[in-house]
Here is the input.
Amino acid sequence: MASHEHSHHDSVPFDTSKIGAPAGLLGGILLVVSLAVMSVPDLRTQMLQSYLFGWVFWMTMVCGCFGLTLLHHTVRGTWGLPIMRMLESGGSARAFLFMGLFFAPVIAFMPTLYSWANPEVVAADKILQWKQPYLNPQAFVIRAVVFIGIMALMAWGFRRSTKRQDASGDVNEQHLRTNHAAPGILLFGLIMTFAFTDWVMSLDAHWFSTIWGVLFLVGSCMGALSFCVMLLMANAEKAPWPTVMSSNLTKDLGNLMFVFTMLWGYTHVSQFLIIWSGNLPEFTSYFKNRSDGGWNAVGCALIVGQFFLPFVALLVPRAKRAPMTLAKIAGWLFVIRIVDIYNFVMPFFRSTPMPAWTDIVAFLGFGGLWLAVFAREMKGVALLPKYDTRLQEALEHAH
Here is the structure.
């Protein structure tokens, strides 16, 4: 734990430029490779499936960062101050627009991924015909543009406001953000529900879950929080964070991770109980497809790795006082989130969970470019908001 007496000149200032350029270059190359592979007819379907998996994971990171930004501005908790710039960068308007741009290949080859977008399949399926007024290619594209556009606009507005307040110190900016963030959370929840119903759940247009949006909302926030906590704790001794690091702060962040861990378990158990109690064949396909061919092992790994292990680890007060221990727990949660999204998406396409090389290419491609956007957004802003000094003042009073 960095102490308050830790001097700034003893630490190396946090610098994202070291990761931005290499990550962007790697991501750009791998996404070009992904697009090139799509031009090969024999590999197109597999590449598109992998591409969608990579896009969905990193889109959940963007949405999670934005959702936590809304939560911070609504409750104005001190826990959000050290990671606010990270959340703003990961869920920035530029990040949303970047993900929206690279959704184009999914739209271009929509019938390959979504059965309801194939006229021949729809013509032979009464259920898909009944869903056509809502679930059709034109409406799908319009909704995607609207959903991503609204979140990008909101993210731009909140970031612009925090920059203005840093420059002017006008407290009215803070009140304005709170007034907009509170209803914004409701809108965000609705967008998450409709968007991921379109993008993921409609891969099986015969099946649906009434808790699907909450599953993705909780998981997205968990992934974004774990990434930011991992980054913060790994750089706890680098300026400017030694001025705010304390056991109270790490405990708050650890407790928030604990909350999302419990919510993840609660929402997944709820989905299972809802489907089990309904006892209808058309609803059980989701679990049947994830109980054969090795997918059951993935499900068991998620139960242990994304609930029981972090639940027990975050119960230990000492783990939440030590930055590097908390960083390891956050790193584990981030990695297991990848498995979780894989388990959401890939069983719709594959009978076994063995990853293909295209999965790795697409995942790293999107990840590299997202990190490049993240690094660019982190440059040129105060890493700690100047308008709110509650953490610094609390640390000063503690000594």
